[in-house]
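Appendix C. Worked example: Multiprotein-bridging factor 1 family protein
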Amino acid sequence: MTVVTLGETLKQARRAKQLTQKQLAAGICSQSMLSAIEKGQYTPNAKLLMALCERLAISLDEVSLTTNFAISRAANLNQKLADLCNRHQYQELFDFLQTDAVLDSIESDSQMQAYYYYLGISEWQLEHDSQTIETDFQLALANAHPNRSSTLTRLVTISMGVIKAQLGHQRVAEELIDQAVAGIEAAKYEENLIIIFYLAGLINFELKQYPATAGWVTKGIEFATHHNSHYMLANLYYLLARASEMQARIDMADEAHRRADIFTELFHEKPYENF
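Step 2, the predicted output written as structure tokens:
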């Protein structure tokens, strides 16, 4: 099995843009460092990875499904949906989902589930009320197959977890992660499943659980490379770098507090609480 690394992902994107290593690295890092990254000999920090991805037009803020879910039997409506999603045109997507053409074409539970998933995602990106978004996801889950957890059901569940994490509901968010990943290793492989691990990491990042973030991201990287996929690798490594940076800051703060306690004990002086 060939393992697809972050470096290979960046190299493929660089070649697709017809850039040399020197051109990509210019103003960002040395060519030798870029070479080491592409060979998997060095993992870039968040700032460096973001700069490389920006030059390569790899988005680290938006996640696109590799395959979109059908909301209708009408191919033109599904194509329109996919086009809006892939271009991240969320206002247009939201408006499109309200049209009679879409609403009148929904015929099955799976189409209804997909409809409410996309409606919730568009409202989420447009920063609508969290309760409205949660209702959309609940309606999507209400139309899920009762006896099996599809990729879409997992995506809806983990998306609900992100909403809960953003609201500070840690226990519920962690329960939703467990539901979303249950049996995922034995599930029929689809590249969209990699998003589940990314969002599990994102949930923990929102909750400031940085070691757990790293754990889920690492699982996602292993899951992707096991299936010889480079999908989401840049996003996963970026989230891992962010979590590592935040954990380092916490470690530095803890060390500072430990040193302050030592000085307090030695010299009986209490450090200032405010600066």
